[in-house]
Structure formats: structure tokens, C-alpha cells
Input
Amino acid sequence: MEYIEPIKGVPVLSVDRQQNETYIDEKGILNVYITDKTVYIQFSAHEIESLIENNHVLFCLDCDDNICGVIINDVGDNEINILEKALK
Output
């Protein structure tokens, strides 16, 4: 993946098109990658086109400005261990 300069800010989420249900079981991709102190959660196979940075979190956006993943930096060792155990 080529370097993408992140934009500092907060993503604006549109939820007005969501169904009014308590729980929706979405079908699709959910991959979790853990390296050193970084966790990358991928929601879609779409290519990352832009990044919005808010503190230690990078929101990954595709070409349609939909969130296709989240990158969390500086994750503590204890949190990494909990996540790794939960994913087994």
C-alpha cells in the first residue's frame, strides 16, 4: 500500500439510511490484523483512498467515502493480549 497523508479530524457518519432495528447481522468481511502496538480492523475489501486521523485512530475511507477499516495505534500490551485471546 502506498503512503496516504492522513487528514486530522473526525469522520461524519450518516445513519439516517439504517433500519430501525436493535441488531443487524451484517454479512461481509471482518479481518483483524495485529502488529506490535497497532490493530487494523478491515470491514471491506475496497481499497483505502483516504485516512482521517483522530488521536491514535485512523479511519480508512474508500473511493465512495465509506469507512472500510480502522487502524488503532499505540495499543497497550494488555489490550493486545485480550484481543488475541478473544480472536482465537
